[in-house]
Design brief:
There is one protein chain. This protein has a domain of 52 residues. Helices cover 63% and strands 12% of the residues. The protein contains two helices and two strands; from the N terminus they run H-E-E-H.
Length: 101
């Protein structure tokens, strides 16, 4: 947890320093839209859109994996209930053999 906090603070500090040093105004044209803003802001927006696109691309895989895990857990529980495993070890009533006789 501490490592995560230190990493997050380091990333925040580097991002802040980057934003302070890249204040130049840039124009971004996409299809029929035109955006004006600082270089740091435009890069941050591009990064955010990339992260969002990658998260949306992984959602079907995550849903499928969770459904498979749930199905397999249910199947294991059904099989355990249908045929319980024999008990292993010694029972409470059995006495250990005396090999010294």
């Amino acid at each position: 947890m501490l490592g995560f906090l230190i990493g997050a603070l380091l990333i925040a500090f580097v991002s802040f320093a980057f934003a302070l040093q890249n204040t130049a105004t840039v124009t971004v044209k996409f299809l029929f839209w035109t955006f004006n803003g600082s270089l740091a802001l435009m890069l941050l927006i591009a990064l955010s859109l990339g992260v969002l696109a990658s998260l949306l691309a992984t959602v079907p895989t995550l849903i499928s994996r969770n459904a498979t895990i749930s199905r397999l857990k249910r199947k294991v529980q059904e099989r355990e209930a249908a045929s319980p495993l024999p008990e292993t070890g010694t029972s409470a009533n059995s006495q250990p053999e005396n090999k010294n006789n």
